Amino acid sequence: MNTALEDFLFAFLLSLFAGLSTTIGSVIAFIVKKPNPKFISFVMGFSAGVMIFISFVELLLSSIASIGYGLGVFFFFLGMGSMFLIDVLVSHKYEFEDSVEILVNDNGSYKPHLHYGHIHRKHFNGEKKNLKIEKTTLFIILGVFIHNFPEGMATFIGTIAEIELGLLLTLAITLHNIPEGIAVSLPIYAYTGSRKKAFKWSFISGMSEPVGALITWVILFPFITPALLSALLGVVGGVMVYISLDELLPASRSLGKEHHSILGIMSGMIIMAFSLALF
Q1: Residue 112 Cα distances to 34, 100, 180, angstroms
Q2: How far apart (Å, rounded) are the C-alpha atoms in residues 121 and 53?
């Protein structure tokens, strides 16, 4: 097997690993009955710190050094703009801190209806379907699936450019995807009462990342040049910054106190600074 093909396969495997990390979040959601929101806040802040630091110090600078300031910045904002369009067209919302409701029928049977957090009980008509929760759940799955697609491309492109960079991006996205897996699996379990279905859909939502990597491989493989790779690094930097500012930081701040989030950001940046220096 030639070296180029080996690099592409390794890049795809990293994207696959990052995507599978949503299932880790799903498992955590079932093992740990109430994941510590302060810890999740720190982890999401850490992931944001890693992504922001890598984007500005490594991705954007590498792009500018290769194709010039104007083009490097253009492709950086192209990445941010692309994610903005995805957000406008298909938004998604993370839910970690709602309440838990056990709906009890007149005959004593129950149906789990978890709004994660506190427990309430009330009677319900077994014939009625909670269409609102079902619709919300489907939108969360669809939203996470589409939002994960560029992350798979980012991991793949970063690894093709430099294996060490790909490993760092995989770390950041993995830390991001674990809380995402929790966010996907909880409402599905709430609606169906089935751990199997919750696990299945969190797995499917994460699989958009290797799909994104595979499509990037198929489309770009014949055309990869140093200039195109540098342009794509700029795009990846914009995507990572957008995800950090629009998703990770707001979620991190909402789950914990302000210092949990900022400590996570600082820790992520410091560790990435040392990692890049060692690499």
Answers
A1: 16, 8, 21
A2: 46
pTM of structure: 0.75
Q: How far apart, in whole angstroms, are the C-alpha atoms of residue 207 and residue 224?
A: 24
- State which residues form the domain around 268: 3-278
Burial zone of 275 (CB within 10 Å; 0-12 exposed, 13-18 middle, 19+ buried): middle
What does the pLDDT read at residue 279?
Answer: 64
What sign has the CA pseudo-torsion 218, 222, 226, 230? negative
Q: How many CB atoms are located within 10 Å of the residue 79 CB?
A: 27
The tokens describing 12, both together, are: 């795809």
Please give the average pLDDT of every successive group of 10 residues along the chain, which has 279 residues: 75 92 85 75 88 93 95 97 86 48 41 40 42 54 73 89 88 85 76 80 87 87 84 93 89 78 92 83
| Per-residue model confidence (pLDDT) at position 6 | 83
Position 194: which residue type? S
Token pair for 274: 């040392």
Cα distance between the two ends of the chain: 26
How many domains does one find in the chain? 1
- Are β-strands 110-114 and 100-104 bridged in parallel, bridged antiparallel, or unpaired? antiparallel
